[in-house]
Design a protein that fits this description.
The complex is a heterodimer of chains A (570) and B (346). Chain A is an alpha+beta fold and 570 residues long. Helices cover 38% and strands 21% of the residues of chain A. Chain A has three domains: 39 residues; 183 residues, Penicillin-binding protein 2a (Domain 2), CATH 3.90.1310.10; 327 residues, 3-Layer(aba) Sandwich (Beta-lactamase). Chain A has 21 helices and 23 strands. In chain A, 44% of the residues are buried. In chain B, 67% of the residues lie in helices and 2% in strands. The chains are: A alpha+beta (570), B mainly alpha (346). The interface between A and B is large, with 34 and 41 residues.
Chain lengths: 570, 346
């Protein structure tokens, strides 16, 4: 009996074992092989550096620096309070702040979350050594974006931010991950696809401790491409300095290529703040009443004032509404219907021809001219010279400005277009809104005798020119443009011109503008080109509520040009 | 001298050689010369086994009580001696460690046969003496704690009663008593032992704790596939995902590296060995020594089956070595000496 039972026991047991192992190894072998691979194979991402952003001479405006940060891996954390206390003790960050940023930044249990960044090198090494046993605490070194000149050219450079969930959904195929940084504005956003390096990775074999035993394969990360901007750092810094006391902007553009040599929007901001974990500073920036994040050169929309007279002059001459010699009498006001429209000079300019009227910025002359030219021609030429539409500059979030029309007024305001509207538009007031970039482009089109350029901020990407020539040669008579340019020269250089403050040598041409606004002092404009004889740059200074006559702006231009000329001589 | 060559020695040698080759792989990334020590133990075991086979079953059966008493004293001694880690399993004699539970595994069958061979178990009450001695030893071993070693005493006592051809009717009260004991015993288990049993019932309960071992063991076996990953190439074992890969979980290392075909060959060899042992034991003319050999046979069989079953999730994980495969001198010695007794007719 025993023998029988033993044999049954032995054979059934072995049969059972073989059946079970057959099931594991043969039927579910692939499944367990997969499990085994998952066990010991890990993919370690290696981040590719972002490309640098440089000025036209290759000076670094945005680069990369080594940075240490304290991260936690949520699913490895055993005792969260212990980690908070350690960080509090060593770095003095309050536990409440840590708790808050933990909550704020938590995305997924497996996604490392940065609690403190910018830990200095020595401290990072010390912490790494001392707290290696705390589960879930990581002292990680990473490459961080760095803007060596701080707020200089901040609006052109833009800034980085952590990728949003929508962006991630869209961009995941392009190698973005949780908590990747991505360009949010400026060149950082516009050229994101070039600047971003491609991440590499290592396929490694690890043991049960997660220790790397062997690197099975490695794909090196690729550095992003360098983006060369058209700006000149020296001129940019000078202009930033000149604009610093004001809210406004300054642009200088190459009149042949459309390259933006300088573009300042004031107030500016320090893009380094967005990469730090300092949420207070970021919030302060976002909430500031002066809106420092706004790039006033392309996102500001303002009434233009007298600078628009140049466009009226062009429209009038082109449509043959007046001849350059036609004269109008300015008694200091212009009576139309029941209304009196004032000239800025209440004593009047007496008889003026077009050249004098531009140099003296006589309102009454342009009231007459505007009415003679007619709203349709004004709109046609304003559109031709690029008002009311984007310039197409290679920066994100550009605004259109606004060019009014009778059809618009009927539709939106349910009112007819009155001659009074034309009169207001003739001196750049009323419904017209412009972005400073549109204005400088218009002036450049005068300076180069009728070519409307597409402004550009990027000259090349990693040495390869990216720009397609997209200039429009306008069908306007060169003699008319030359006439306007001569008048602009007088505005700065004649003894009675309105822009004398900006008089420099070599001779320049310019036009002042005072845009009246509903609240506060007028906006001060001054636009022109230099040198007069062989124009190289068109420029525009704009100061919000800078006061009448465009003096503030003209003074900025003068300082800038003195510097520009001196630099050109060197 | 009726001693003769038996094919059994070949099976043992082949299995041991496969075992030592597998142990080489299982301990490949460990410091220390496991292979060397295991080989020395094996040679020593052959030497001792050779001597024991000269003494013969008959004479050893005369010493049953002495064997039991010495083993019991060793079990008490190991509990008195200071713990190593948190367990009392080994007694150090110079440079060798002795595992008293292994000694008891060898002594208890001898004791049962020598003392109770002529007892007739007519009444249920008469069962009490063998059971009492078995439980006494089992409890001491369980105290170490070593659940596997403790449970390994029961196959021989159960086989003993079966060989004594006791009536099932008479044994019934004890079987019922045993079943009642199970929950009581369960509550006296150490927490890690309980969790092993719990995770056997539901492995997902604690995938990083007690379930981890079983999970990794299954992955090791399963990922071996039909032909295996090759010697020294099993990722589970080599990269140390598999705990205890050189002792209790040495079988998954083999299954991972040699696959289903290797497993078939190994189980075939074990089967041949056990069948040969069975036929020798059955043909033994002397009833008492035949009975003793059968008890040894059952002990070794159950140990092989339970070890493999626990690594593939058929039985809960109890610490138990795989004969000739797991690293450990005491078990190797005891197994070899048990088998050595099959080589002599007396």
């Amino acid at each position: 009996m025993f023998s029988k039972i033993y044999k049954i026991f032995l054979t059934t047991s072995l049969a059972l074992i073989i059946l079970r192992i057959f099931c594991f190894q043969v039927l579910k072998g692939d499944y367990y092989r997969e499990m085994s691979l998952n066990n010991y194979l890990r993919v370690l991402p290696l981040s590719g550096y972002r490309g640098n952003i440089l000025d036209r001479y290759g000076r670094e405006l945005a680069g990369n620096r080594l940075n240490f940060s304290i991260q936690v891996l949520p699913d490895r954390v055993k005792n969260r309070d212990e980690i908070f206390n350690v960080i509090n003790k060593e770095l003095g960050v309050s536990v409440e702040d840590l708790k808050r940023s933990y909550k704020l930044k938590f995305k997924a249990p497996f996604a490392p979350l940065t609690l403190v960044s910018d830990v200095d090198f020595e401290k990072a090494l010390f912490l790494k050594e001392k707290y290696r046993d705390i589960s879930g605490l990581l002292i990680s070194e990473n490459i961080k974006r760095y803007y060596p000149f701080g707020s200089v050219a901040s609006h052109l450079l833009g800034y980085l931010g952590e990728i949003s969930e929508e962006e991630l959904r869209e961009l995941k195929p392009y190698g973005y991950r949780f908590s990747s940084y991505i360009g949010k504005n400026g060149a950082e956003k516009e050229f994101e696809p070039y600047l971003k390096g491609s991440d590499g990775g290592m396929l490694v074999k690890v043991d049960n401790q997660g220790k790397i035993i062997e690197v099975l394969s490695q794909q090196d990360p690729k550095r992003g491409l360098d983006v060369y901007l058209t700006i000149d750092l020296d001129l940019q810094q000078k202009a930033e300095e000149l604009l610093a006391p004001y809210v406004g902007c300054f642009i200088a553009m190459d009149v042949e290529s459309g390259e933006v040599i300088t573009a300042v929007s004031s107030p500016n901001f320090n893009p380094n703040i967005f990469i730090s974990s300092d949420n207070h500073k970021i919030l302060k920036l976002l909430r500031s009443a002066e809106n420092p994040l706004l790039n006033r050169t392309i996102q500001g929309e303002y009434p233009l004032g007298s600078v628009f007279k140049l466009l009226i002059a062009a429209a009038a001459l082109e449509s043959n509404a007046i001849n350059p010699g036609d004269r109008f009498f300015c008694p200091g006001y212009f009576k139309y219907g029941k209304h009196d429209y004032k000239c800025w000079k209440s004593s009047g300019h007496n008889w003026q021809d077009l050249r004098q009227a531009i140099a003296h910025s006589c309102n009454v002359y342009f009231y007459n001219t505007g009415l003679k030219t007619g709203i349709d021609s004004i709109i046609y030429y304003a559109d031709l010279f690029g008002f009311g539409r984007k310039t197409g500059i290679d920066l994100p979030y550009e605004k259109d400005g606004f060019l009014p029309s009778p059809a618009w007024k009927v539709k939106e305001k349910k009112e007819h277009w009155y001659p009074g509207d034309t009169i207001n538009l003739s001196i750049g007031q009323g419904y017209l809104l412009v972005s400073p970039m549109q204005v400088v482009r218009f002036i450049a089109a005068l300076a180069n005798d009728g070519t409307l350029l597409k402004p550009k901020i990027c000259s090349s990407i990693s040495g390869e020119a990216t720009y397609k020539e997209e200039a429009e040669i306008l069908s306007v008579a060169i003699k008319n443009i030359k006439f306007i340019k001569r008048s602009m020269k007088d505005a700065v250089n004649s003894s009675t011109g309105t822009g004398q403050i900006a008089k420099v040598s070599p001779v320049i041409a310019g036009k002042t503008g005072t845009a009246q606004v509903a609240l506060g002092k007028s906006h001060a404009w001054f636009g022109g080109f230099a040198p007069y004889d062989a124009p190289r740059i068109a420029f525009l200074a704009f100061v919000e509520h800078g006061g009448g006559g465009g003096y503030v702006s003209a003074r900025i231009v003068k300082e800038f040009l003195n510097y520009y000329y001196k630099k050109s001589e060197l | 001298m009726n001693k003769r060559f038996d094919i059994l020695i070949c099976y043992v040698l082949i299995i041991f050689l496969i075992g030592i080759m597998n142990l080489y792989s299982a301990s490949y990334n460990f410091a220390g010369s496991y292979i060397m020590r295991q080989s020395i133990w094996f040679l020593a075991s052959l030497f001792v086994g050779f001597g024991v086979s000269f003494i013969g079953t008959r004479r050893i059966l005369n010493l049953g009580l002495i064997f039991y008493v010495i083993s019991l004293l060793l079990l008490i001694l190991v509990l008195i001696l200071p713990a190593e880690g948190s367990t009392h399993r080994w007694i150090k004699f110079g440079f060798i460690n002795i595992q008293p539970s292994e000694v008891m595994k060898f002594s208890l069958p001898i004791f049962l046969v020598s003392v109770f061979y002529y007892s007739n178990f007519e009444s249920s009450f008469s069962f009490i003496m063998p059971l009492l001695f078995t439980f006494l030893a089992a409890i001491l071993i369980a105290k170490e704690p070593d659940l596997g070693g403790s449970l390994m005493l029961f196959p021989s006592v159960i086989a003993f009663f079966m060989l004594k051809k006791v009536k099932l009717r008479k044994a019934l009260p004890w079987i019922i008593a045993g079943l009642i004991m199970v929950p009581i015993l369960y509550f006296n288990l150490k927490p890690y032992q309980k969790s092993r049993i719990l995770t056997f019932v539901n492995p997902d309960l604690d995938p990083l704790g007690a379930g981890y071992t079983l999970m990794q063991s299954k992955i090791a076996v399963g990922s071996g596939g039909i032909v295996g990953k090759g010697w020294l190439k099993g990722a589970q074992g080599q990269l140390r995902f598999l705990p205890e890969s050189h002792t209790d979980f040495v079988f998954p290392v083999f299954a991972e590296e040699w696959g289903f075909l290797g497993v078939i060959v190994l189980l075939g060899l074990y089967l041949l060995m056990l069948r040969r042992m069975h036929s020798i034991a059955s043909r033994r003319k002397d009833g008492a020594s035949g009975m003793l050999l059968n008890l040894f046979l059952v002990t070794i069989s159950v140990q092989i089956i339970v070890n493999i079953c626990m690594t593939i999730g058929v039985l809960p994980i109890v610490g138990l070595p795989l004969p000739f495969f797991s690293y450990g001198g005491s078990d190797l010695m005891v197994t070899v000496v048990m088998i050595a007794l099959f080589f002599r007719d007396k």
